[in-house]
Structure formats: structure tokens, C-alpha cells
Amino acid sequence: MNPTVSTPAKILLIDANVFLARRITEALKLEGFEVVHTTQSGYALTMLEYDTPSAILCSTSLREISAHDLPPIIHADPKTAHIPVIALGDGGDQALMEAFRSGCADYVDKRLGPELIAAQIKTFLRSNSEGFRPVQMLGSSDEGLSGSLSHLDLPGVVQMLVHSRQTGSLSVNSGEIDGIIFFENGNITHAESGDRIGDDAVVHIVKYCNGVETGSYKFLPGESAATRTVLRSATELMLEALRELDEAAQDNGDGGFR
Fold first, then answer.
1. Is pLDDT larger for residue 81 or for residue 19?
2. Any idea what the Cα angle at residue 224 is, between residues 222 and 230, rounded to 5°?
3. Are 48 and 80 spatial neighbours (Cβ–Cβ below 8 Å)?
4. pLDDT above 50 (res 4)
5. Nearest one of 200, 165, 171 to 183, comparing CA atoms
6. What single string gives the DSSP state of each residue in 69-122?
7. 77-81, 200-204, 217-221, 254-258: which is most confident
8. Whose CA is closest to 208, among 158, 256, 146?
9. How far apart are CA 198 and CA 50, in angstroms?
10. In the predicted structure, residue 256 carries a pLDDT above the cut 70
């Protein structure tokens, strides 16, 4: 093999749904990946050391060892600790945060369809190796990240910026919400939304923009805030926002939130 030719990144796909796995496999191969599929996590664990993948895409609905169970196992072994686990689930407001809480590096919604799933995997691996640069989400200027909140939840956008250690500003607009969040090397440093600033502003923005049908975001790299007002981590702030959403849904009885 010519040493100058890079080897295709290998994805280990673990899903008991053979039909869906076949479609995802085909889509991943079209994106240039090599794919190994298995229906059993236990078997997959035995092959990691001698056939190490670039990433593991694992279903959250497996009865044996699901995506939520894999990270502690994978990361406990120094030989496999570098392998990111990407959860493949059925959606839901809490699915993303549950995946991150369990140690997964990313979350993919099965409802997106094979082509978009493959594109998200490609985006994730590129951000891991080259810094955050999801080609399919870039604007025409090719200088910033922008997109619709109906396609990618705000917590997902924030987590991707955090994981790829970005510096810049994230503007968010949805309904009555008009906010901005600043990042410095992946840490949220400052946020504003109306008369709210700091931690309170981050919680407010995420709380009112999570799972919305309309809304947009735009990330401009390189911009920094003059002051630091955010003291807690992005994960803590998003968990608080989603916890408040849960409480509001219980109070309203129908999940509605305004």
C-alpha cells in the first residue's frame, strides 16, 4: 500500500436492527468510511484491541450493553480509551444529555435517516482530528457555522463547540429569544440574553431554544468577550436548563413551555 494514501476511517456499528444497520453502513461507505457491523456489544468488545475503529456508533436500545454502558468500559482500558463512543438513539428531549452524561462523545438521532447520520459522523470525526469544521453546515462565506435549530438542538451545537475547543461567539435567535454565547478554547466565558448575563443567560437561552421547530444559530470563530461572566461548565448549565424544562412540563401537565 502506498504510505501517502490515508487509510479510510473505520466505524464499528453496533445495532440489533440489521435492516437499519445495512442502510447506515451503505451511507457511511459513500462518505468514505470502512464499516464493521455487529449486533452484539459483548462480541464487539473482544475485537477492539486487534481491530481498533476510529469511532464506535452504538444503539442506546440494546438489551445487553447499550451505548450508555460502553464509555466506562472503553475508557477504563488505556488501549481503547481514545475511541469515541457515539450514541445512536430514537430522539427525545433528554436523549442528548443522557448520552453526554454517560460519557458518549456525541449523539445521533436515528430519525435523521442514514444519509444525515453518515454526514454527522463525518462531521464529528473531522472536528476530532482537524478542529470543528462541519462542511455541510458552513455558510456561503465558508467562515462560520450556521444552521437551523429544527435540524440540530442547541445543546448539541454547544457541546460540539465545547468538545472541539472553539473560540468565538454563538448567536442564537428563536422567537422572543435573541442571545449570544462566547467561547474561549471550548469554555463558555460570557453570555447575554435581554437583561440576563452570565450563567443565567446561558440557562435561559438553552431552556427556551431546546427542541424548537423554528430558530437559527450562527457561530463566528475568533470573537472573544471583554469580560468573563460564566463560571460553571457548559454541561452543568445545560443540565440545569433541561431540569427546569422538565419541572415546567410537570407543572403544566402537557409538556408545553412558553
1. 19
2. 135
3. yes
4. no
5. 165
6. THHHHHHHSTTTTT--EEEEE---TTHHHHHHHTT-SEEEEGGG-HHHHHHHHH
7. 200-204
8. 256
9. 47
10. no
Question: % helix / strand / coil in the chain, to the nearest 5?
Answer: 40, 25, 40
Q: Phi and psi at residue 257, in whole multiples of 5°?
A: -150, 130
Q: Which three cell numbers stand for residue 111?
A: 430519525
Cell of 244: 427546569
- The three three-digit cell numbers of residue 119, written as one number: 454526514
- Distance linking the first and last C-alpha atoms of the chain: 59
Mapping DSSP to helix (H, G, I), strand (E, B) and coil, where does residue 189 land?
Answer: strand
Which among 214, 172, 217 has a CA at the least distance from the CA of 196? Answer: 172
Secondary structure of residue 252 in the 3-state scheme: helix
Separation of CA 8 from chain center: 22
Give pLDDT tens digits for 125-165: 876 664 443 333 333 333 455 666 655 567 777 877 787 67
Domains of the chain and any CATH numbers: 1-130 (3.40.50.2300), 132-258 (no CATH)
**Closest-CA residue to 156 (of 199, 112, 200):** 112
Question: Residue 59 half-sphere exposure, CB side, CA atoms within 13 Å?
Answer: 20
